[in-house]
Structures are given as C-alpha cells and as structure tokens.
C-alpha cells in the first residue's frame, strides 16, 4: 500500500507515519499544495496513492481544496471510481459542516477526529479494504 500523509502539524504527521509505516510506503506533505504535487506525480508515474490521510486546516491551501483538486486529477486521468484513492480526513474539527463538505463536496472516504490513535486508524484502513 502507498500512503500520503498530509498535515501541517509535525506531531500529527509523525504519529500517523509511525502507525502506517509498518503497513505502507508513506510520503509526507505539509500542506495542500505539496499534497497535490505529490499526488499528480504519483498518477503520472503510475504509482498512485492507495490511501491519503488529509488534515483539513492547513496554511496556503486547506484540505478541502486539496481534496477537490485530487479528485479532479483522478477524473482528468480517467481513474475509475473503484480505483480512486481512499481519503481519510484527519482533523481536530468535530464539525458537521466540515464533515458534510469533506464527504459530499470533496469526495472523502472517511473521517477521523484527532488525536488519531493506532487502533482507530488501522481499523479504518482495514474497513476500507486496504489491509
């Protein structure tokens, strides 16, 4: 499994990386712009991401915008819906509007509220069929 961890917070990035590194090849981005660049490069190189753990609140470009761009790249490259990256939104926000926007406007697959613990994250990854 190939995973992209997108979070501006060092502690959160590191925690998710520690959890996933035993089961995935992990790349890291610190904001939405870096995430889009990494995602676009992966698609072009034929090494798409299976999983993206995406924070919503980040500087420069937030997670909502990054997610819309990622889904647009998949459409542009004619990625079949069943082959789209699974996106777990990881955020401090336990907010109904943000949840709605992530799922229905952005195409998120799942939503976890921080702090993320190993059991919750791995259980979610399993439920998405990636483990």
From TrEMBL:
Keyword Transferase: no
InterPro entries, alphabetized: CheY-like_superfamily, Sig_transdc_resp-reg_receiver, ST_Response_Regulator
Superkingdom per UniProt: Bacteria
Keyword Phosphoprotein set for record: yes
Signal peptide: none
Keyword terms, alphabetized: Phosphoprotein
Every Response regulatory domain range: 2-129
Residues carrying 4-aspartylphosphate: 55
Biological processes annotated in GO: phosphorelay signal transduction system
Identification of the protein by name: Response regulator receiver protein
Species of origin: Pseudodesulfovibrio profundus
């Amino acid at each position: 499994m190939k995973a992209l961890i997108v979070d501006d917070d060092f502690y959160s990035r590191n925690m998710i990386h520690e959890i996933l590194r035993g089961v995935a090849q992990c790349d890291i981005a610190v904001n939405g712009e870096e995430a889009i660049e990494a995602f676009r490069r992966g698609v072009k190189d034929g090494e798409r991401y299976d999983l993206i753990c995406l924070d919503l609140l980040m500087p420069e470009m937030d997670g909502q915008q990054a997610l819309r761009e990622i889904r647009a790249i998949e459409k542009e490259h004619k990625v079949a819906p069943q082959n789209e990256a699974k996106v777990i939104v990881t955020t401090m926000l336990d907010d109904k509007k943000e949840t709605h926007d992530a799922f229905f406007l952005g195409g998120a697959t799942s939503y976890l509220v921080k702090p993320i613990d190993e059991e919750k994250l791995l259980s979610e990854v399993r439920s998405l069929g990636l483990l």
